[in-house]
Amino acid sequence: KQDSWTYTEADGTVLGQKVTPLDRAGLYVPGGKASYPSSVLMNAIPAKVAGVSEVVMVVPTPRGEINELVLAAACIAGVDRVFTIGGAQAVAALAYGTESVPQVDKVVGPGNIYVATAKRHVFGQVGIDMIAGPSEILVVCDGQTDPDWIAMDLFSQAEHDEDAQAILTSINGRGALIHVRDMQQAIEVANRIAPEHLELSVA
Which chain regions cross the lipid bilayer (predicted)? Predict the structure, then answer.
């Protein structure tokens, strides 16, 4: 948690920063194609640590039931209220408020292109964390890591969206998706792609 601070110069000028937590944060948790309890934890815990008074979570329920792991994560992370709505309309509900969903100061959390577009639209009315594009990962591997681990790490991002990218570079000639001459070329490829997630699986 970041604390407020002040500094007084010799001439009496006071400089500083006052850190004030938001009153209410809105957390969008994807749930259309899969369940992401990790999204709850990665967004709710920092809000609670920062001192946000109330965390409101929205999560779609395409089959009519909230995933138990998502609810457990919400309980563990201290989420105050949960609403079973998703998509752009959930972002709008958080940003503007409805009869049942309270208006928040900031909307955070990942989502599909419709959620990202809605967050772009409400920015200015409320704060947002970012406008995230499709998930992507680039793994740089030297051939010494268990291939099952690498495959699972690639799948962990590929599952998010049909437009997600999962890329592997390797100096080992067996099974490489992008075969590079050496680690320098692997670095050049990684810099060129500039992925959202970069994993270095090297000794």
Answer: none
Choose, from 54, 179, 188, 197, the residue flagged as catalytic.
197
Per annotation, catalytic residue among 54, 179, 188, 196: 196
Residue 188: domain span:
136-201
Q: Is the pTM of this model over 0.85?
A: no
> Residue 11 falls within a domain, yes or no?
no
Q: Look at residues 84, 94, 82, 83 and name the one whose alpha carbon lies nearest to residue 119.
A: 94
Q: What is the pLDDT of residues 28-52, one digit of tens each?
A: 999 877 788 999 999 999 999 999 9
Active-site residue, 121 included: no
